[in-house]
Design goal:
Elements lengths: L1 H27 L11 H9 L5 H10 L3 H18 L9 H23 L3 H12 L2 H8 L1
Helix pairs in contact: 3-4, 3-6, 4-5, 5-6
The structure holds heme C.
Heme C (HEC) binds next to helix 2, helix 5, helix 6 and helix 7.
Length: 142
Protein backbone atom coordinates (compact mmCIF):
# COMPACT_ATOMS: atom_id res chain seq x y z
CA UNK A 1 0.00 0.00 0.00
CA UNK A 2 2.74 2.43 1.06
CA UNK A 3 4.90 1.36 -1.82
CA UNK A 4 2.07 2.01 -4.25
CA UNK A 5 1.52 5.45 -2.74
CA UNK A 6 5.18 6.31 -3.17
CA UNK A 7 5.10 5.11 -6.75
CA UNK A 8 2.04 7.21 -7.52
CA UNK A 9 3.50 10.36 -6.03
CA UNK A 10 6.78 9.74 -7.82
CA UNK A 11 4.98 9.50 -11.13
CA UNK A 12 3.06 12.66 -10.33
CA UNK A 13 6.26 14.49 -9.43
CA UNK A 14 7.92 13.36 -12.64
CA UNK A 15 4.92 14.50 -14.61
CA UNK A 16 5.04 17.89 -12.98
CA UNK A 17 8.75 18.23 -13.70
CA UNK A 18 8.20 17.35 -17.33
CA UNK A 19 5.40 19.90 -17.58
CA UNK A 20 7.54 22.60 -16.02
CA UNK A 21 10.43 21.78 -18.33
CA UNK A 22 8.17 21.90 -21.37
CA UNK A 23 6.74 25.20 -20.18
CA UNK A 24 10.22 26.61 -19.66
CA UNK A 25 11.29 25.53 -23.14
CA UNK A 26 8.15 27.04 -24.68
CA UNK A 27 8.52 30.41 -22.98
CA UNK A 28 12.22 30.59 -23.80
CA UNK A 29 11.67 29.86 -27.50
CA UNK A 30 12.38 32.66 -29.98
CA UNK A 31 8.76 32.51 -31.09
CA UNK A 32 7.57 35.01 -28.55
CA UNK A 33 9.81 37.57 -30.18
CA UNK A 34 6.84 37.98 -32.51
CA UNK A 35 5.28 40.34 -30.03
CA UNK A 36 8.29 42.57 -30.11
CA UNK A 37 8.38 45.88 -31.89
CA UNK A 38 9.73 45.66 -35.47
CA UNK A 39 12.97 47.62 -35.79
CA UNK A 40 13.54 50.66 -38.01
CA UNK A 41 15.24 48.70 -40.77
CA UNK A 42 12.41 46.19 -40.97
CA UNK A 43 9.79 48.96 -41.06
CA UNK A 44 11.70 50.82 -43.79
CA UNK A 45 12.35 47.77 -45.94
CA UNK A 46 8.93 46.14 -45.68
CA UNK A 47 7.03 49.41 -45.62
CA UNK A 48 8.76 51.46 -48.25
CA UNK A 49 11.38 49.72 -50.30
CA UNK A 50 10.54 48.71 -53.86
CA UNK A 51 7.45 47.34 -55.54
CA UNK A 52 6.97 44.60 -52.95
CA UNK A 53 6.66 47.04 -50.04
CA UNK A 54 3.39 48.09 -48.46
CA UNK A 55 3.36 51.60 -49.95
CA UNK A 56 3.46 50.19 -53.48
CA UNK A 57 1.07 47.35 -52.71
CA UNK A 58 -1.51 49.68 -51.19
CA UNK A 59 -1.26 51.97 -54.19
CA UNK A 60 -1.77 49.15 -56.70
CA UNK A 61 -4.59 47.50 -54.76
CA UNK A 62 -6.37 50.86 -54.47
CA UNK A 63 -5.98 51.56 -58.17
CA UNK A 64 -7.41 48.11 -58.97
CA UNK A 65 -10.28 48.58 -56.53
CA UNK A 66 -9.10 45.56 -54.49
CA UNK A 67 -10.20 47.08 -51.22
CA UNK A 68 -9.77 44.00 -49.07
CA UNK A 69 -6.11 43.81 -50.05
CA UNK A 70 -5.63 47.55 -49.67
CA UNK A 71 -7.15 47.41 -46.19
CA UNK A 72 -5.02 44.46 -45.15
CA UNK A 73 -1.78 46.13 -46.29
CA UNK A 74 -2.83 49.46 -44.82
CA UNK A 75 -3.39 47.78 -41.49
CA UNK A 76 0.19 46.54 -41.40
CA UNK A 77 1.51 49.92 -42.51
CA UNK A 78 -0.45 51.58 -39.69
CA UNK A 79 0.98 49.04 -37.25
CA UNK A 80 4.45 49.99 -38.49
CA UNK A 81 3.44 53.61 -38.08
CA UNK A 82 2.72 53.01 -34.42
CA UNK A 83 5.89 50.96 -33.98
CA UNK A 84 8.40 53.34 -35.56
CA UNK A 85 8.35 55.80 -32.66
CA UNK A 86 8.97 53.01 -30.16
CA UNK A 87 12.41 52.60 -31.72
CA UNK A 88 15.41 54.78 -31.14
CA UNK A 89 17.33 56.05 -34.16
CA UNK A 90 21.12 55.93 -34.01
CA UNK A 91 21.29 59.57 -35.08
CA UNK A 92 19.53 62.85 -34.36
CA UNK A 93 17.73 64.44 -31.42
CA UNK A 94 14.91 62.84 -29.51
CA UNK A 95 12.34 65.63 -29.90
CA UNK A 96 12.78 65.75 -33.65
CA UNK A 97 12.44 61.96 -33.86
CA UNK A 98 9.29 62.05 -31.76
CA UNK A 99 7.68 64.75 -33.93
CA UNK A 100 8.57 63.02 -37.20
CA UNK A 101 7.33 59.66 -35.93
CA UNK A 102 4.05 61.17 -34.81
CA UNK A 103 3.59 62.63 -38.26
CA UNK A 104 4.43 59.28 -39.83
CA UNK A 105 2.00 57.48 -37.52
CA UNK A 106 -0.74 59.99 -38.36
CA UNK A 107 -0.18 59.57 -42.12
CA UNK A 108 -0.20 55.77 -41.96
CA UNK A 109 -3.36 55.91 -39.87
CA UNK A 110 -4.96 58.26 -42.41
CA UNK A 111 -4.19 55.76 -45.16
CA UNK A 112 -5.85 52.98 -43.17
CA UNK A 113 -8.94 55.05 -42.39
CA UNK A 114 -9.31 56.03 -46.04
CA UNK A 115 -8.86 52.40 -47.16
CA UNK A 116 -11.50 51.30 -44.68
CA UNK A 117 -13.87 53.84 -46.24
CA UNK A 118 -12.83 52.77 -49.75
CA UNK A 119 -11.79 56.36 -50.35
CA UNK A 120 -9.18 56.20 -53.12
CA UNK A 121 -8.47 59.93 -53.02
CA UNK A 122 -7.83 59.77 -49.29
CA UNK A 123 -5.54 56.75 -49.67
CA UNK A 124 -3.50 58.48 -52.35
CA UNK A 125 -3.27 61.70 -50.33
CA UNK A 126 -1.98 59.75 -47.34
CA UNK A 127 0.51 57.82 -49.48
CA UNK A 128 1.72 61.08 -51.01
CA UNK A 129 2.24 62.56 -47.53
CA UNK A 130 4.35 59.54 -46.54
CA UNK A 131 6.21 59.66 -49.85
CA UNK A 132 7.11 63.29 -49.22
CA UNK A 133 8.38 62.62 -45.71
CA UNK A 134 11.35 60.32 -46.37
CA UNK A 135 14.00 62.96 -47.03
CA UNK A 136 13.50 65.15 -43.97
CA UNK A 137 13.58 62.21 -41.60
CA UNK A 138 16.58 60.55 -43.26
CA UNK A 139 18.51 63.81 -43.20
CA UNK A 140 18.02 64.16 -39.46
CA UNK A 141 18.07 60.52 -38.30
CA UNK A 142 19.50 58.10 -40.81
C1 LIG B 1 10.20 59.23 -39.28
C2 LIG B 1 11.46 58.94 -39.87
C3 LIG B 1 11.56 58.25 -41.22
C4 LIG B 1 10.71 58.37 -42.30
C5 LIG B 1 9.45 59.21 -42.43
C6 LIG B 1 11.25 57.52 -43.33
N1 LIG B 1 12.40 56.90 -42.90
FE1 LIG B 1 13.51 55.54 -43.94
N2 LIG B 1 14.81 55.40 -42.39
C7 LIG B 1 14.72 56.10 -41.20
C8 LIG B 1 15.87 55.79 -40.37
C9 LIG B 1 16.14 56.31 -38.98
C10 LIG B 1 16.66 54.88 -41.11
C11 LIG B 1 18.00 54.24 -40.69
C12 LIG B 1 17.72 52.88 -40.07
C13 LIG B 1 18.98 52.20 -39.60
O1 LIG B 1 19.95 52.14 -40.35
O2 LIG B 1 18.95 51.68 -38.48
C14 LIG B 1 15.96 54.66 -42.38
C15 LIG B 1 16.38 53.78 -43.37
C16 LIG B 1 15.74 53.57 -44.56
C17 LIG B 1 16.14 52.59 -45.53
C18 LIG B 1 17.33 51.65 -45.43
C19 LIG B 1 16.88 50.42 -44.68
C20 LIG B 1 18.00 49.43 -44.48
O3 LIG B 1 17.75 48.23 -44.65
O4 LIG B 1 19.09 49.84 -44.09
C21 LIG B 1 15.27 52.68 -46.60
C22 LIG B 1 15.25 51.85 -47.88
C23 LIG B 1 14.31 53.71 -46.26
N3 LIG B 1 14.61 54.22 -45.00
C24 LIG B 1 13.27 54.10 -47.07
C25 LIG B 1 12.36 55.10 -46.75
C26 LIG B 1 11.37 55.64 -47.66
C27 LIG B 1 11.23 55.24 -49.12
C28 LIG B 1 10.65 56.55 -46.95
C29 LIG B 1 9.49 57.39 -47.41
C30 LIG B 1 8.45 56.75 -48.14
C31 LIG B 1 11.19 56.58 -45.59
N4 LIG B 1 12.22 55.69 -45.52
C32 LIG B 1 10.67 57.37 -44.58
C33 LIG B 1 13.71 56.96 -40.83
C34 LIG B 1 12.63 57.34 -41.62
Amino acid sequence: MLRKLIRVSLVAALGLTATLLAYGAATASPQDKKDEVPDIKEIMAKGHKGTDAYLAKIKTATKDGKWEDAQKYAKTLAFFGEALGKNKPSKGDADSWKALCEKYAASTKAVLEAADKKDAKGVNAGLAAIGGSCGACHKAHK
